Every structure is written in structure tokens, then in C-alpha cells.
Amino acid sequence: MKVFFSFSSSIAFILLLIGTQASISSCKKETVYIHDTTRVTVTRTDTVIHTDTVPPATLTNTQLLAKNKWEIQELYQIVPNSGGDTTHYVRGIENTTGYNQDVIRFTFHEDGTGEYIADNGESQSLAWQFTSADEKNMKLTVTGSNGPVIFYWSLVSISETEIFETTAQSNFLVSARLVPAQD
Q1: 152: exposed, middle or buried (C-beta count within 10 Å: 0-12, 13-18, 19+)?
Q2: Tell me, what's the pLDDT at 57?
Q3: Average pLDDT of 122-147?
Q4: Which of 47, 73, 148, 179 has a Cα at 20 to 30 A from 15?
């Protein structure tokens, strides 16, 4: 008697039948009616969808500045002509600065302009620029009713949730943390 199939080809045939059965059982046929007159049979099969995870684009410091209006969260200041006394401000908790830090706001636009709301609530124009290649230093020119005042921010660190800056100028030193404004 002649053998038509070898043992290995029988195994291969059985595996082929199992694979075909698995692929057939994963299909689902249904009849769909379009406009109550046209009958279409749709065959649905299991589909594996592969989604690439693309990390969000990293924003530049300029984009991070322009993303929010900023308010002071905490500030330390060495008071001029006081013999080195230090004042402290923490939003909603403490203010020994003598100024209404609660209303101060900074708005930066990507074109180097912006707005500064002073401690008296006055809206003033703001011009700003980075003064170092690593963007750790900035020059801010605030122009209000009393003319322009220039501030130099050093040790600047910018993220989506906070800005840290230190201003060492003339006879005063200020170190502050700004956060996105809640208004």
C-alpha cells in the first residue's frame, strides 16, 4: 500500500486546518440595508491597530513664556536702605514687602512685547528679550506713566508651570517664583 501523506505533511495539513478555522471564526458577517432597498453583506474581521506614541513637541522658552499670563507665587527681597532686611511674599499666606504683590501680572508675547500689571493695578507696556545664548538672562523694559524702568533677570529657569528669576540691581535683590495666573 502506498502512503499518500507522510507524518510531517499530515501535521502541516492539520495545522493549516486549525489556522483556517481560527481565521474563519474571527470573521462576522452581517447584512446591512441602505435606504431600505439596497442589501449589502458586510464581512468584519478582527483588526489589530498599531498606534505610534509620538512625544509632544518640546516648547521653546519663548513659547513657554507666551503660553500663560504669570503671577508671583513667592518672592524674597532685600530692602534697599534698610541695612539688609529681607521681605517675603507667599501668595495668600504672607506679605511683608509693603506692595500689593497679589495684582502683579506679566504677559509675554512671542514677538518680545507684553504687558505688566503693576502693584497699583496700572497696565504698563512690557518689552523683553533674552540677553544670553542659553536664555538664562533677560532684559525687561516696563513703560508706565512714570517712564521706562529696566529690569535684568538672571538665573532664569522657565517651564510650563513656573518661572524662577533673580534680579540683582542697584541696591536691591529680588528672587521670585512665578506661576500661571489663576485669573
Answers
A1: middle
A2: 84
A3: 96
A4: 47
